[in-house]
Amino acid sequence: MEVIVKETYEEVSRLAAELIADVIRRKPKAVLGLATGSTPLGTYKELIRLHQEEGLDFSRVNTFNLDEYVGLAHDHPQSYHCFMWENLFKHLNVNPRNVHIPDGTAKDIPGFCRWYEEQIVKSGGLDVQLLGIGGNGHIAFNEPGSSLGSRTRVKTLDERTRQDNARFFRNMNEVPRYAITMGIGTIMDARQLVLLANGSGKADAITRTCEGPITAIVPATIVQLHPKATIIVDKPASVKLTREYPAEPSVLVLA
Ligand code: PGA
Known about the structure:
The chain is of the alpha/beta class. The chain is about 30% helix and about 15% strand. The chain is built from eight helices and ten strands. Helix 1 (about 10-25) packs across helix 2. It is globular.
């Protein structure tokens, strides 16, 4: 696990976008695992710039999103479908057929979750999974206490998560109570993980993720077991870390 501390959110975003772009350049049919929330917005802005100004080609890329609220239609402004099209996909040359986002309106949710897992496997598996982290240490909507081996399924949202996300809804009653989320086992199957955090509100969760023991109470701690995980944080999110971390990924150059 590599922990990188950048001065600013913009630098976090640029490095994350560069890691993803590198995967796409090496493998034009790359399978990307994508995330929603405030954290990845800068990364998406930079990926859009790389596409529009430097010709980064998404035409053969496949994408799988981590999660979606149960009960929100695709065109609901707070649905993650809307979020992804508005903030990323509509600005790229992705093939809509290659875009996968859990369907919060599925009639048979367990059946849908099995299908989603199968599609990830059929596509060849996730080459890189982008992750944010909740203030409570969740990844995707795998809330504290989630099985560390879990697969895609429906989860009840933690009260803290609902409060964190209430800013996007008119009142607490409108904040969904359930979500479909990739499981922790699904995420851990990705070949590479890139976990981002910015702001002091993430400092506790980041310290536990980077330096604490692995525990289902802080689901993000599982990334310590991943063979290729990069955690990129800005200064405010790093303030409680007790060790020194570099500002750049280490590059091994073999003679
Ligand atoms: P945020 O959410 O990016 O909006 O802070 C992250 C998360 O809950 O995973």
